[in-house]
Structures are given as structure tokens and as C-alpha cells.
Write a structure and sequence with these properties.
With 196 residues, the protein is an alpha+beta fold. It has two domains: 7-111, Glycoprotein, Type 4 Pilin; 115-187, Dna Ligase, domain 1, CATH 3.30.1490.150. The chain contains five helices and eight strands. The strands form two sheets. A four-stranded antiparallel β-sheet has the order 2-1-3-8, with helices on one face. The protein is globular.
Length: 196
Amino acid sequence: MTLPSDAGGRLLPVARAAIETRLAGTTTSQIPVGDLAAREPRPSWLLAPGASFVSVREQGALRGCIGTLTAHRALVEDVAHNAIAAAVHDPRFPPLSEAELAEVLLEVSVLSGRVPLPHASEESVLSALVPGRDGVVLESGPQIRATFLPQVWEELSDPAEFLTHLKLKAGLSADWWDDDVRIETYTVESWAEPGY
């Protein structure tokens, strides 16, 4: 999907409006997500299938991050639903309160398609990863899957450290490796509210 230069100016308000509406007491199924991008005419890229992540930060610390890896609904709907999920359904954090909303800042990331990363060993994965660019999905069997957005490279700049933390996120040990593990990469376009 090709996004226009003003995409962030459309998607960030969608994310914030969805959270505001949810915290005001409206259930997800009642939120008219199509209306959250109400400027007319509604551009086709907002209605095209898209995969996104929404991150919430409070005083510089992560407060929630939820997203989808596969485009399966309109981008505007995906952003709205993921914003709500990041604010109130991330199991790592308590739900955001209405009082906290003014204190948090949002980032919206729109994902490219995923590309399998062929590998013969963990070392070949580490040598193929591009810090700062690659988002990474790790999958093993039907139950194990974890991802890190490219933004995580800002905190874990070494590929070995990045992959170790991704394994831990997936519930695996730091030294776990299986040559049958599936690794995919993707890129993102992201926009954050000022101060994020």
C-alpha cells in the first residue's frame, strides 16, 4: 500500500478518537470507526486493507502496544481497533483510564507485507537482519509467535540482543534455537504525536 505524505495526520486522530470514544463508555462494536476519519471525500487508502500497530506511551514509558501482522480489514478500522486494544487490552498493563488519556502520546505504524527470511542457522539470521529497518516475526509451531517492530532497534541495537529478547517475548529461552523456526521481516511507516 502506498501512503500519502499526510497519512499520519489522518491516522493519529483516528487512533486518539477511537480511544476517547471507548473510554467514554462506548463498546468497540458501537464505535463507528468509519466515521473516525470523517473528512470527505474519504481517500481510498484509508479503506484499503492494512495492518497496523498502535503504541501508547506515558511519560516516555511504554503503556501499551497492540497490532495486526496481516491486513484483513480497512486500514482506518485496523488503526481504530488496535488503538483501543493498546489502551485497554494489552495484558502487560492495566487499562488506561479516562483521566490518563491527556497524559499519553500515540504512535501509529503501518506495516508492509511480511517477507520470509531464508536461513540455515541462527548466525545466518543475525547476519541478514538490518538494524533500524527490519521488523521481525518469529514463529515456531502453531502456538509460538512474537514480533518486534523496527522501533525496538532503538533500544536493542545489536542483532543478537534483539533476537534474544524476541525469543524471550515468545516465551522461549534466550539460548533456544530450532532450524525449522520461521523468521519473517517487514518494514513500517510510522507517525507519532509531538513529544512521543
